[in-house]
Amino acid sequence: MDEVVAIERACSRTPWSKRMFMEELQNPLAHCFVCRRDDSEQPSVLGFICFRNVGEESELLNLAVDPVHRRSGIGKELMQFYLNLAEKTQVKRFYLEVETSNLSAIRLYESFSYQPVATRKRFYQDRFDALVMVRKA
Ligand SMILES: CC(C)(COP(=O)(O)OP(=O)(O)OC[C@H]1O[C@@H](n2cnc3c(N)ncnc32)[C@H](O)[C@@H]1OP(=O)(O)O)[C@@H](O)C(=O)NCCC(=O)NCCS
Question: Which has the minimum average pLDDT: 39-48, 49-58, 118-127?
Answer without folding.
Answer: 39-48
